[in-house]
Fold:
Amino acid sequence: MTNAMPIFINSLFPFLAEQSLDREAKQFIENARKSIALAEKELKYADIAFAHTDKDSETPNLKLAEISVWHYAQTIKNYSEAVAELEQAGRLRLPPKYKKYVDLKTKKCLEEMAYSNNRKIRLGAILRASR
Structure:
């Protein structure tokens, strides 16, 4: 019964539906922004650990490699959450300015996920070779 009231109100007052839609889209975009900020932080930590693994030497720092793999995994998880939120926002009617923003952010997230995954795979190969 709680879901019936908003549908009833929105059917009588279509302008109210537009306002709630905008709030919903803004919430999806804000959630994505928060996930992107977390992902960027994790990516920074992962890259720092990656740079210190001495991956090209005979004896890479395996502990730092494991730490880096974990941070890359967190980066991928956070970017994935951001993409999901942005896709939800993209399904709603967005003004062209916001649609462009959502599309650009989605593309950037996917690129960063691919970068992180490549690094994670590279480090995974180092870890497997050392065991």
Summary: Residues 28-130 form a domain with the Methane Monooxygenase Hydroxylase; Chain G, domain 1 fold (CATH 1.20.58). The CA atoms of residues 79 and 110 lie 7 Å apart.
